[in-house]
Amino acid sequence: MSKEGICYLIGGGPGDIGLVTLKAKSCIETADVLVYDALSSAELVNWAPEGCEKIYGGKRADNHAIPQGELNQLLVDKVKEGKKVVRLKGGDPMIFGRGGEEAAELAEAGVRYEIVPGISSSIAGPCYAGIPVTHRDHCSQLTIFTGHEDPTKGESSLDYKHLAATPGTKVFLMGVKRMREITNELIKGGQDPDTPMALTRWATTTKQSTIEGTVATIADIVDQTGFRSPAVAVIGDVVKERAQINWFETRPLWGKKIVVTRTRTQAGVLSELLAQEGADVFELPTIRITEPADRMEFVESVAAVHKYDWLVFTSPNGVERFFDAFFKAYDDARSIGGAKIAVVGPGTAKKLKEYHLGVDLMPETYVAEGLVEAFSKKEDVENLTMLWIRGNDARRTVYEGLNAMGAIVDECIAYETVKETEDPTGAQERFRKEGADMVTFTSASTAENFHELGLPWPEHCVSASMGPVTSKAIEETVGHLALEAPKSTIPDFVEAIVDYYQK
After folding, report:
1. Which residues are catalytic?
2. Taken in order 403, 406, 410, 412, is the CA torsion positive or negative?
3. What CATH architecture does domain 257-286+420-502 belong to?
């Protein structure tokens, strides 16, 4: 029996990845085919599983990657092949997103589909700009319309005289290019030209910017500032509230473009913390974690874990890969035996905690040298057996240091760090075009591989390091080192970056 396909028409929200629904995330993570828009958060594409067919179907003004008719047919064809298709659209698919047209095509073709609503930028944009679209002191009515239509054409479906006479807040999308025509038509229709007005670009993202004026002046301000789409426009007295409740554009890293070079799977925590401080973060992974070259040797090391006095972990990746293999070999966590556990730092300890395991030894300085020193102070390790779980590119410091103290150390290569060769979100091209204020490096390999990409280094851009070993690699490759975290942890790294810019 062949598998029945289905298409999910999903709203990807206005841009802030935290505003995506749980159902949307679940659908993307299990998709066979992902057809995504230009306005979707680029990070959403990374949620797709390995093997998922990714198709860019975005639209910007007159530039359509795939004509709408062909895109509709593509969705139908993929569903008929038995695929789980996710059609990812910015905002809400049914608010000026042509989701209704695509749903109609799917219905007419007789294939299964579901519609997953998203948060529209028509509501979220003003909210993130500090503008409540309804307010007891100003209005209790909201009107949303499209600015995509040319208001001067003879067959416009919008009645600007009626819109002008409508009380309350007015919000429109996709109208930056026609701002002067739209505001002129509203004024001709009776709109008070002194009514406050605001435009918010790239709403809810760390690229967000807002301009304010009145219905009479906003078009001139757009021209003077070079303001561009995508933007949401708000007309009404509620704009006055922004002076007091503008919360999003006042954070310490606001306006700073910061690059994260960690692996795609690991970048999230660093990116999230930087974004919370207001940075415009874009992920440009330079490394990827893969299976070890000698898989059999790795499996044999894991199977023999109960023979050791100590397990030594020097990265969260090692912990994850080791225990993934361990629980394929054993059903009972007690099969690990009586080994004590040492880690290089709190990040690795945190990953162990996910497996309900504590730590017996962690150094004060979160580097390999610190771990060796911690062992020398804790106990006599002569003739104790140790299994060091590491990546293929780890420095030999732990092995040589423990061996020098008389320990019997076996190495378990749990993963390999290789160059990242894919760039599905276009981060490298963005870096070439826009540059950045800072590039963050969390390991020596991220710096070395970034250097090998050969990307031009922007003027005034600086490097930031999460530890001394990484700093050395930065100085030998990309240079421009501005700061080093006092401790090799993500929270300390972010705090150091905030301190750097506040000073």
Report:
1. 37, 59, 174
2. negative
3. 3-Layer(aba) Sandwich (3.40)
